[in-house]
């Protein structure tokens, strides 16, 4: 008994070379076109999950930092995430500068992480770069960890006074968001 | 499918005959869990746990659908709507406690079900597909339970969502983009809560579908048994109904008693008090822990605190955690011993007991604060977990001299050793 492939459709010449047949072009073309269609339909189904316009709209925050004394820090919010603004003491700056950059997991100097002439203002997201907990150390009396900066209680990541990762599982330094000083005492984040 | 001596479905009532000719669903049920399914005669109570898992899945679906009638998946009111269920809805507290503790019972019976498979070698040929589908169900259950725990939008819900979606940010390059896409924002918020609810509603039905495949795959070779020796003749089996429907009924009664004791006497025993504090994106609880059933995997995640071979610690942790489960997919091929049941494998069973202790240690470490000692013990236990599957198991399978197997299930039963349990094997003098 002939298989489907060998069967000769009525009307076709028996001895014509059967490979590839016109029918295969039609079949492959039709299925490929349906595949393209499925792909196009999938796009909006995937893209609907990305942040919506109202979420993206919360993208800048202005902060008055004049009340933060050296050694103090505040917790604010930026894009619904915690933001730490810290006024470093000269001692904390010296500690950060004394650390050899080559020893660091994510090598950066304090200058790299602050604005020119504003080396005492450390602005970072309060989001541990490991799995996203809020590290301790910005609030009054919180555990600043072994390096005097921030300490994440979730899995024990310790950051130094420049917000750089020094021990524990976090891969990178605390993120410094895009920001600028719009006056001597006001910053705009985002 | 099944054995030649399986009883045949014979509808007596003309209506049933009429149905059978058009949609043989009653026949299907008869062959699956009725008198038409011949089962080894020597199953012990560890074989109850499959039916128990099915029962808890059904209970989760029923209590869940009822909860969804009162719950509001909106970050502004989700927490209050759960309190509304607890205080205002008639019997709402009962339904919610049944659902929350039902998840724990479900995971508990599934863990025992998996351990049963490990002890009696049920993952081996010809039942690999049953095992693989089981691991798929386990993964789906973990996803479902995680997303369910986010719904009450308490502190543990929120921070659990933050930490677990944080896993995806470990993927090199595109990780952060994927995380933001999954959450629909930069941190868990309304969009995340809504999609988790949608998926939490969906996944149990996907699980139900895979369970049907799991049982289908099981019924091709038929059930394994405590001796691990295949069924050879009709006298090795009894019909599922009434023999095992009755035996399973005993287990169902015991499981429901324990379940009721939890609901009525200790409904918050397995929960975490911090989840009765509304979600606060600005303050992480001092000590984030997942639900008890995730603790061993959480310990593996936390064990990686240092970069190693160009791979950052964070990625190691996430890879190891997923790897510890994905490893189970390879188990049928890592264990090359022709003997199934640990009752006849004197070396393997010692290591299986050690593995059980190791997983319990991991569970303890997963819930403990990350002090240096805790991290070190977690690292050792993590190494042991992987060593068990990747080193010990293949080597033991090659070196071990199994004890002589009975010629048939019936022979073992008549010698009084047909249904030997792990505890009896451990106590028996060699
Ligand atoms: C595989 C089966 C399921 C598992 C393992 C599971 C697990 C969970 C867990 C752990 C919670 C959190 C409980 C708490 O702490 O309050 C939860 C909540 C919830 N689940 Fe499920 N669930 C399952 C099936 C379902 C189904 C089928 C529905 C139906 C729509 C559902 C609807 C809900 C709702 C509305 C909540 C929020 C109310 C609450 O927090 O008590 N679940 N689920
Ligand atoms: S989230 Fe900070 S150490 Fe894991």
UniProtKB/TrEMBL annotation, chain A:
Q: Where does it reside?
A: Cell membrane
Q: Per the annotation, which location comes first and is thus the protein's main one?
A: membrane
**A cellular component term, taken from the record's GO annotations:** plasma membrane
Cofactor(s) demanded: [2Fe-2S] cluster
The enzyme's E.C. designation:
7.1.1.8
- Show the GO MF annotations: 2 iron, 2 sulfur cluster binding; metal ion binding; quinol-cytochrome-c reductase activity
Which enzyme class, named as a word?
translocase
State the membrane topology: Single-pass membrane protein
Question: Where do the Rieske domain residues begin and end?
Answer: 90-188
Which keywords label this protein?
2Fe-2S, Cell membrane, Disulfide bond, Electron transport, Iron, Iron-sulfur, Membrane, Metal-binding, Translocase, Transmembrane, Transmembrane helix, Transport
| Chemical reaction(s) catalysed | a quinol + 2 Fe(III)-[cytochrome c](out) = a quinone + 2 Fe(II)-[cytochrome c](out) + 2 H(+)(out)
Cofactor binding summary note: Binds 1 [2Fe-2S] cluster per subunit.
Q: Which PANTHER family does its entry note?
A: CYTOCHROME B-C1 COMPLEX SUBUNIT RIESKE, MITOCHONDRIAL
| Subunit and partners | The main subunits of complex b-c1 are: cytochrome b, cytochrome c1 and the Rieske protein.
What does this chain do? Component of the ubiquinol-cytochrome c reductase complex (complex III or cytochrome b-c1 complex), which is a respiratory chain that generates an electrochemical potential coupled to ATP synthesis.
- Entry-linked NCBIfam families: Rieske_proteo (TIGR01416)
Q: Which family does it belong to?
A: Belongs to the Rieske iron-sulfur protein family.
Query: What other note does the entry give for this protein?
Result: The Rieske protein is a high potential 2Fe-2S protein.
The name of this protein is Ubiquinol-cytochrome c reductase iron-sulfur subunit
The organism named in the record is Sphingomonas turrisvirgatae
Automatic annotation (TrEMBL), chain B:
Query: Which residues does the annotation say bind a ubiquinone?
Result: 219
How is it placed in the membrane, per its record? Multi-pass membrane protein
Give a yes or no for keyword Cytoplasm in this entry. no
Cofactor note (record): Binds 2 heme groups non-covalently.
Q: Where does the record say this protein resides?
A: Membrane
Show the stretches that span the lipid bilayer: 45-73, 93-118, 130-151, 157-175, 196-217, 250-271, 292-310, 316-334, 346-367, 373-396
GO molecular function terms attached to this record: metal ion binding; oxidoreductase activity; quinol-cytochrome-c reductase activity
Name the InterPro entries for this protein.
Cyt_b/b6_C (IPR005798), Cyt_b/b6_C_sf (IPR036150), Cyt_b/b6_N (IPR005797), Cytb/b6-like_sf (IPR027387), Cytochrome_b (IPR030689), Cytochrome_b_C_euk/bac (IPR048260), Cytochrome_b_N_euk/bac (IPR048259), Di-haem_cyt_TM (IPR016174)
Swiss-Prot/TrEMBL keywords: Electron transport, Heme, Iron, Membrane, Metal-binding, Respiratory chain, Transmembrane, Transmembrane helix, Transport
**What's any one GO cellular component for it?**
respiratory chain complex III
A Gene Ontology biological process in which this protein takes part is:
respiratory electron transport chain
Which ranges carry the Cytochrome b/b6 N-terminal region profile domain?
Answer: 15-227
Which residues are in the Cytochrome b/b6 C-terminal region profile domain?
Answer: 230-407
Amino acids binding heme b b566: 113, 214
Similarity comment:
Belongs to the cytochrome b family.
Q: What does this protein do?
A: Component of the ubiquinol-cytochrome c reductase complex (complex III or cytochrome b-c1 complex), which is a respiratory chain that generates an electrochemical potential coupled to ATP synthesis.
The record describes its quaternary structure and partners as:
The main subunits of complex b-c1 are: cytochrome b, cytochrome c1 and the Rieske protein.
Q: What is the protein's name according to its record? A: Cytochrome b
Instruction: Name the species this protein comes from.
Output: Sphingomonas turrisvirgatae
């Amino acid at each position: 008994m002939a298989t489907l492939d060998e069967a000769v459709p009525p009307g076709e010449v028996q001895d014509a070379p059967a490979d590839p047949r016109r029918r295969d072009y039609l079949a492959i073309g039709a299925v490929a076109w349906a595949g393209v269609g499925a792909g196009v339909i999938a796009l909006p189904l995937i893209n609907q999950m990305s942040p919506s316009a109202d979420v993206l709209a919360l993208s800048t925050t202005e902060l008055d930092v004049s009340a933060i004394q050296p050694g103090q820090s505040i917790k604010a919010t930026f894009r619904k995430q915690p933001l730490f603004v810290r006024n470093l003491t000269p001692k904390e700056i010296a500690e950060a500068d004394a650390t050899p950059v080559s020893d660091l997991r994510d090598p950066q100097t304090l200058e790299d992480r602050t604005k020119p002439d504003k080396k005492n203002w450390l602005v970072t997201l309060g989001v541990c770069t490991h799995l996203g907990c809020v590290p301790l150390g910005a609030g009054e009396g919180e555990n600043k960890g072994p390096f005097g900066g921030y300490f994440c209680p979730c899995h024990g990541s310790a950051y130094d006074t420049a917000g750089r990762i020094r021990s524990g599982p976090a891969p990178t330094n605390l993120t410094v968001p895009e920001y600028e000083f719009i006056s001597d005492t006001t910053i705009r984040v985002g | 499918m099944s054995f030649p001596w399986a009883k045949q479905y014979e509808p007596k009532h003309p209506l049933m005959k009429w149905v059978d000719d058009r949609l043989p669903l009653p026949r299907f049920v008869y062959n699956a869990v009725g008198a038409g399914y011949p089962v080894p005669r020597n199953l012990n109570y560890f074989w109850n746990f499959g039916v128990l898992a099915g029962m808890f899945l059904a209970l989760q679906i029923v209590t869940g659908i009822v909860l969804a009638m009162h719950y509001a998946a909106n970050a502004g009111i989700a927490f209050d709507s759960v309190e509304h269920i607890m205080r205002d809805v008639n019997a709402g507290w009962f339904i919610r406690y049944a659902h929350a503790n039902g998840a724990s019972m479900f995971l508990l019976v599934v863990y025992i079900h998996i351990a049963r498979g490990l002890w009696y070698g049920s993952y081996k040929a010809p039942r690999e597909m049953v095992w693989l589908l089981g691991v798929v169900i386990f993964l789906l259950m973990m996803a479902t339970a995680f997303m369910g725990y986010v719904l009450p939008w308490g502190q543990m819900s929120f921070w659990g969502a933050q930490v677990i979606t944080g896993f995806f940010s470990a993927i090199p390059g595109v990780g952060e983009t994927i995380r933001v896409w999954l959450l629909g924002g930069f941190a868990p918020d309304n969009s995340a809560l809504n999609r988790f609810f949608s998926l939490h509603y969906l996944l149990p039905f996907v699980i139900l579908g895979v369970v049907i495949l799991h049982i289908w795959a099981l019924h091709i070779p038929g059930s394994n048994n405590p001796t691990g020796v295949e069924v050879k003749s009709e006298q090795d089996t009894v019909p599922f109904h009434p023999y095992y429907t009755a035996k399973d009924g005993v287990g169902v009664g015991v499981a429901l008693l324990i379940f009721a004791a939890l609901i009525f006497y200790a409904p918050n025993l397995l929960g975490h008090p911090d989840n009765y504090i509304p979600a606060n994106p600005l303050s992480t609880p001092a000590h984030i822990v997942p639900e008890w059933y995730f603790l061993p995997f959480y310990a593996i995640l936390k064990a990686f605190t240092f970069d190693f071979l160009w791979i950052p610690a964070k990625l190691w942790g996430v890879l190891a955690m997923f790897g510890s489960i994905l490893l189970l997919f390879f188990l049928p091929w890592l264990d090359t011993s022709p003997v199934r049941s640990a009752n006849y494998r004197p070396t393997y069973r010692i290591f299986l007991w050690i593995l059980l202790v190791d997983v319990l240690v991991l569970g303890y470490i997963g819930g403990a604060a990350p002090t240096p000692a805790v991290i070190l013990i977690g690292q050792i236990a993590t190494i042991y977990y992987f060593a068990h599957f990747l080193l010990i198991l293949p080597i033991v399978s090659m070196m071990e001299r199994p004890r002589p197997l009975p010629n048939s299930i019936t022979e073992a039963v008549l010698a009084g050793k047909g249904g030997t349990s792990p505890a009896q094997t451990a106590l028996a003098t060699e």
